[in-house]
Amino acid sequence: MYCSFNISIWSHSLSHFISYIWFFFQAQKTCQECNVTFGDYYCDICHLFDKDKKQYHCQPCGICRIGPREKYFHCQKCNLCLASDLRGNHKCVENVSRQNCPVCMEDMHTSRIGAHVLPCGHLLHKTCFDDMVRTGAYRCPLCMHSAWNMEDSWEQMDKDMAQSPMPTEYQDATVKIICNDCQTHCTVPFHVLGMKCSGCGSYNTAQDGGLIQQLQEPQPQEPQQEPEHKPQSPVPEP
């Protein structure tokens, strides 16, 4: 068997050719007969040949990843290689990489698209996160936690609500809510623009019960004063 095997007969003897290659040649970066380089990068574990893209093999992940290696680290709990700036700066969720992206439903663990870690710890593709930002979707598709710091938005909401008082019949109405950010259950004033969590100040809340209408106590009425009667002059007798 020669390394310059005629390609014209592959379609007729492919299985035979492969068995011969397996018998004679061990997978490696260069051909042991003619020293031709099969790829700039070769992994002797995955048997992957590719152009040089600063790849590296991650043993815990079990696959090769695009590097460079020094810019990534493997999070043991998340079971995924993440950018170095996320070391100690993200919330870990066990084996979160084994879930699909909640936006596009594609695999996260073997994806060549970078992963973005939300404050809640869930993962989605960086490109999918950018799409969420452009469309104004600010919550995690899985747990509804805020996907980024919303303090400026909540401050603006405070101003909007202060300028939009509720009608008189709803000013004392309250409603039970649950906060998607801190999981607090509380009863807060009802407002059509939003209900603010009394625990963390977030407006990322959901109604957890019906409207509670407070009965207004009737105000005591002042006693009516009887009109003064002037004494009438006696009628002269005829």
From TrEMBL:
Domain RING-type residue range list: 101-143
Region (Disordered): 211-238
GO biological process: protein ubiquitination; ubiquitin-dependent protein catabolic process
Record protein name field: Ring finger and CHY zinc finger domain containing 1
GO cellular component: nucleus
Skewed-composition ranges (Low complexity): 213-224
Record-linked InterPro entries: RCHY1_zinc-ribbon, Znf_CTCHY, Znf_CTCHY_sf, Znf_RING, Znf_RING/FYVE/PHD
GO molecular function terms attached to this record: ubiquitin protein ligase activity; zinc ion binding
Pfam families per UniProt: zf-RING_2 (PF13639), zinc_ribbon_6 (PF14599)
Domain of life: Eukaryota
Residue intervals of the CTCHY-type domain: 38-100
Species this chain originates from: Oncorhynchus tshawytscha (Chinook salmon)
Keywords from the UniProt entry: Metal-binding, Zinc, Zinc-finger
